[in-house]
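Hi C.,

You asked whether I'd gotten around to modeling the 327-residue construct. I have! Everything is below, sequence then structure, no commentary in between.
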Amino acid sequence: RQIEHAESIGLPLCGNMAVWTASHSNLLALAGLTQAQASSPEALDERIRSLVGLSVSHYKDSIRHWRFHNAINTSSDSVGSMAHYSKSFSDAVAAIHDNAPDATIIAPGLMGADTNSLMRFGIPDRIGSNDWINLHTYSWGNISEPALVSDPVRKLLERSGYANPIVISHSGHDRAFPGNGVLGQTQQLAKWFGFALTQARIQKVFFGMQAGDRWTPVDAQSGPYPAWVALRTLGLLLDGADYLGPVKDGPTTFAFRFHKDDTHLILLWHDAPRPTHVRSARDCTFVNMMDQRFPVTADSRIPVDRLPVVLFARESIEISAWSEPDE
């Protein structure tokens, strides 16, 4: 049902492969294990290999990316020790590759910039050339958090010769965040996404799709929340685009330049109570976060507020005349 729903709204899928623990009774039930059996690493390992293999074999035509639950540096999610969690991961990876040799493995997440746990787990030495590193950025409203988390991790990985994508699978934005109504939710997540793609140089972002999950913009039963439209709009516009750098980087106005195929794009927003205006030196197209598109003629005033917008054209776009609105 979730796969059909995701495909109906154009949502690419990533399988979430749990490494079952004695503290997760619902997952143990799915694995067919009692609490007593779960205390046996051998029994747990055997069930993990079997269930992972069956899941990947069944869904390999629809799902080509598999990530692991949960953060490697949260003790409640390892079975007794980091060593056993590490072994469970290795067994699951082997089961995935046995059933889907070309699958991409998204390594267990890292909560925060905990490079010590990353090294203790053995990343990046233990991941393949087709695999990715996964970060959890529980930013609690701080939209620049992706850069704060990713920078020290990226430096460590680069010293180790790791050049594969770094992805984010948890944004840490609660839909019930204080004051986060429909517009606030959309503004917050869209700006967070913009910072993740630019300042943090994140190549991929995944969001969960679970029934009643307050941390995700898509509910498996009721469908997408308002912010999903904004995220999908940004994702489709910028998918495969190269980030070229900032046009304007604060303190309240942000604009970032991208290039995709034969299209030039600028992502911009103005993070202040009152909007500003910009002018484009050439004709372009204006796209808001509801995926509404409007033609813009050269030198006309373009209003910009807290909700990000994208400008795109066949040739490079130069924008100027940042100004406050008329009194």
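If it helps when you're writing up: The two ends are 53 Å apart (CA to CA).

Thanks,
B.
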